[in-house]
Amino acid sequence: MQSFDVVVIGGGPGGMTAAMTLNQLGKTVAIVQAEHDSIGGVCLNRGCMPTKSLLKAATAYRYAKQGDKYGLNLSAEKVDLQRLRTIVDTDLDALRGMIAGMMGQAQVEVFYGFGSFQSAHEVMISQADGSSQVIRGEQIVISTGSETVELPFAPFDGQHILSSDQMLQNTEIPEKLLIIGGGAIGCEFATLYHTFGSEVTVVEALPTLLPREDQEAGRALQQAFEAQNITVKTGVKVEQIKVEGGKVRVKFDGIDTAEVVDMVLIGVGRRPIIDNLNLDAAGVVIERGAVKVNSAMQTNVPHIYAVGDVSGGVMLAHAAEVAGQMLAKNMVEGTSVSLADGAIPRVAFSHPEVAGIGASKESDGIRSFTMSVVPNGRSVVDKVAPAFVKLFVEEESSVVAGGIIVGEAATEMIHELALAVENRLTLEQVGKTVHAHPTHSANVATAVHMFR
Ligand SMILES: Cc1cc2nc3c(=O)[nH]c(=O)nc-3n(C[C@H](O)[C@H](O)[C@H](O)COP(=O)(O)OP(=O)(O)OC[C@H]3O[C@@H](n4cnc5c(N)ncnc54)[C@H](O)[C@@H]3O)c2cc1C
Is the pLDDT of residue 106 over 90? Predict the structure, then answer.
């Protein structure tokens, strides 16, 4: 039996980063990765990267369609999703190549197959043809990520009722698309398909889009969507979905008329992947559907750790990545560090983009200020709506406790506020920083100077 200092189950951003850091710290490491993804996990294969590749194409298409606005005669033919898929695949292949190179340099051994516990130190790797092998780890990391949640009354069929995985394989642009769930994934697909020509409706059960964010920001995104003719229904629950005669009939709670569309995307959330891991054989405890960990990301079994989406919390790739580095140090150096939720930028790559950091609510000792309609030079020449910037500040110290931005390049601009939150910078310190002109980032400086 092959034996390693550490066996990592799941090769997404969390597992991969942990494995490479562990190897740098002198450990022999193996990664077990299920064959339906390559190393890179959901993020590279079915999440962050394919969506961003498609969103880049959507931005280019939007510019082509709106050439007039910029004084250009451009023509934009109908989008060929089949062709776009080949471009996405080229991007993903390049990324897979980069990761394979990094893995090779790091001397991390990759085993393709499905991993499950045979005992607290042994991982069985099973292949689709029924064959299997067992490897041993002195320590083990569980980083099996998460999967899409299905609605009990609307199973995915890949044709009319789709998950985000299936939507990324889709090559049809539906005339009418209804998206259930107004979180980041729902809003990104709304932007994509609206740009590609579908009539899009987003339905969210809670009162605002991006319901975990500040409500004012959610309403700002809703207004921007509605200005583009994306229909948004908030505070509305879907009660029934039926496929009839090639169309999908969607009935809402308390509303008599059903909506008839060509395709439904279910984007109601993701859950940790723990089934079939045979956690009982290792004695690992689960809490609220996720692997339970302490502040060192250690499970109840001291030599077994968990990182990324599988341990619940903020399900974002950069959170898994940074936590993976911290986890490796905890395992080797015996430290007990983990990533505070407040330090993780929260992002939606919709049009407009939304990005938040730190506090997202006023509370005792935290005050907020909203800047919503102050055009800056860059938004005028770029011909985009002025950014919405909301800041949360500690009343006594003037330390920046959080912020949220809705607008062009928000997912880039947020890092200035992240730096401020992480290092407890005051409004005055951020305000003293010279911002280049003309930039979208200057919006942050304007909001800081206007804070009352
Ligand atoms: C459509 C979409 C868009 C997204 N966009 C963004 C974005 O823009 N930015 C962002 O930060 N996050 C984004 N995310 C979230 C991000 O993809 C996840 O938070 C991130 O991938 C989690 O990393 P992870 O390492 O925990 O697990 P994962 O990336 O889920 O990787 C885990 C891997 O383990 C494999 N696995 C599972 N069980 C086993 C087993 N028993 N044996 C072997 N292998 C196994 C899985 O197949 C998977 O490949 C997006 C997600 C989706 C679905």
Answer: no
Any residues with Cβ below 6 Å from ligand 1, and which? 9-15, 32-34, 36-37, 41-43, 47-48, 51, 114-116, 143-146, 164, 185, 273, 277, 308-310, 315-318, 320, 347, 349
| Token code pair at residue 248 | 């999908």
- Among 173, 174, 204, 170, smallest CA distance to 187 is for 204
Token duo for residue 318: 């950069």
Together in a domain, 175 and 131: no
Nearest-CA residue for atom 5 of ligand 1: 48
Q: Are residues 251 and 105 in the same domain?
A: no
Instruction: Indicate the residue type of 14.
Output: G
Name which of 278, 275, 338 is nearest 305 in CA terms: 338
Q: What pTM was estimated for this model as a whole?
A: 0.97
Length of the chain counted residue by residue: 452
Q: How far is CA 106 from CA 21, 110, 145, 383, 432, in A?
A: 9, 11, 22, 46, 42
pLDDT class of 373 with cuts at 50, 70, 90: confident
Residue 158 has pLDDT above 90, yes or no: yes
Residue 416: inside a domain: yes
The pLDDT confidence band at residue 250, using thresholds 50, 70 and 90, is very high
Domain residue limits at 190: 161-268
What's the 272 CA to ligand 1 centre distance in angstroms?
A: 10
- Looking at residues 18-40, what average pLDDT do you find? 95
**How high is the pLDDT of residue 350?**
98
Distance from Cα 274 to the centre of ligand 1, integer Å: 13
Evaluate whether residue 200 is within a structural domain. yes
* Residue predicted with more confidence, 325 or 257: 325
How far is residue 384 from each of residues 2, 20, 308, measured CA to CA in Å?
57, 41, 35
pLDDT at 100: 86
Please give the single-letter amino acid code of residue 190: A
- 440 catalytic residue (yes or no): no
